[in-house]
Amino acid sequence: MIKARPGRIRSAMRHFLDSEAAGGLMLMAVAALAIVAANSPLSEAYFALFAAHIGPLSLQHWVNDALMALFFLMVGLEIKREMLDGQLSSWGRRLLPGVAAAGGMAVPALIYTAFNYADPVAMRGWAIPSATDIAFALGVLSLLGPRVPASLKVFLAALAIIDDLGAVVIIALFYSEGIVLPALAGAAMVLALLFILNRMNVRSLLPYLLLGAVLWFLVLRSGVHATIAGVLLALTIPIKLTPGKPEASPTDSPLHRLEHVLQKPVAFIIVPIFGFANAGVSFSGVSAGVLLEPLTLGVALGLLLGKMVGVFGSSFLMIRFRLVSLPAGASWMQMFGVSVLCGIGFTMSLFTGLLAFDAYPALQAEVKFGILAGSILSGALGYTLLRIAPREERARSPAAARV
Prior knowledge:
Shape: globular
Largest sheet: 2 strands, antiparallel
Low-confidence stretches: 1-10, 245-249, 393-403
Helix content: 55-70%
Order of helices and strands: HHEEHHHHHHHHHHHH
Strand order of the largest sheet: 1-2
């Protein structure tokens, strides 16, 4: 079995967490700026900017379909690396965050459904509250510094990565319409070529990226959402693993090289641009009653209560039945606080909402209100719980360090 030196894994994970946390803080600022812009004298210019067409697509579609394909490429690289060489490289490590992620996706969807089951159009958004925004959540955790044990940060990162994988599957299965078979067949051929390059041990990234651009275009034309091309491309990028010892150098691994190149642009440019383009919601002409609409309540309570119950409840059962241990150095209240933070669904929830209600702008506004309300409440409550939570001081066995 391939193993990597624990110190190297911790170092890579620390770098990942640091960049995600800083990116999350920047995303908070950009989202606030978008809301201010949408409700200021510049609102008309703000909305006109992203409605303007550049070639065949509007600027907003370029952001959501093209730039976000790079975000999904980064997500795919993280999933592959963690599955093969990181915190998700064994079933023991996958068990707690995997079950917690499943619970954290199922319960929010059920809460949303309970509010909207009578409306077939609104039911298109059942997956909106199922996502966790890792950048936002880690950004809030970073404000707490050493009050939160590192094991809980790793647990949250692992959970969010599995959560992202679930979101990718949901988008591919439920938010792809009007399939164009010739384009889909062409995309399959390009994907086959990419896997051939992988099997031939081609280490240069250039042919992968060139074919990846073709793959993105064909997937866009096929009716499957274009961002899925980013994840498919990530699965074909080679990662260098040497049995019995760590990699000689990350620069020898194409996956590590590409991930390193993408990490900061995605965290500090692409995701903030997406947030600025999509977080802006105008309060003009909107009454307080919109917060009581079933769609708004389904999203907001799905995020706040659904994640809280789904993540913490499934984790509690796994730990109480002694299938896994509480993360090292963590108290139950800290575990509960991190579960609440999972209700920050901003980026992926917005993205899913745009897909679900692409033809219904009025419903998109309700989705945004629900996401903002649920995410803000989850962030504030999770931060407060973690701020006042007593730290676990008693010694723990090595088994307790597994997450």
